[in-house]
Design brief:
By secondary structure, this protein is mainly alpha-helical. It contains three helices and two strands, in the order H-H-H-E-E. It has one domain: Arc Repressor Mutant, subunit A (Orthogonal Bundle), CATH 1.10.10. Strand 1 and strand 2 form a beta hairpin. Helix 1 crosses helix 3 and helix 2 crosses helix 3.
């Protein structure tokens, strides 16, 4: 499975088991890349997948958050 899908799966699992809740902020793309050792492009691809699936919302200049009604 590609790294971006693994990263997205990790976030989905954290939402489903309650570790991440609606409104919780996510670290910035660069912070995630630095802490996981993947490229920023990989993190962006994961975030794009999560946004398209309705799990996260992104506000320019503010950051990314777990959607108020994340997909299940």
């Amino acid at each position: 499975m590609p790294l971006y899908r693994q990263l997205a799966r990790f976030v989905v699992d954290a939402i489903q088991d309650g570790r991440l809740r609606p409104g919780d902020g996510l670290p910035g793309e660069q912070n995630i890349a630095d802490s996981t050792g993947v490229s920023v492009d990989t993190v962006r691809a994961a975030f794009r997948l999560l946004r398209e699936a309705g799990y996260i919302e992104t506000a320019t200049g503010i950051g990314s958050f777990i959607a108020q009604k994340p997909a299940r």
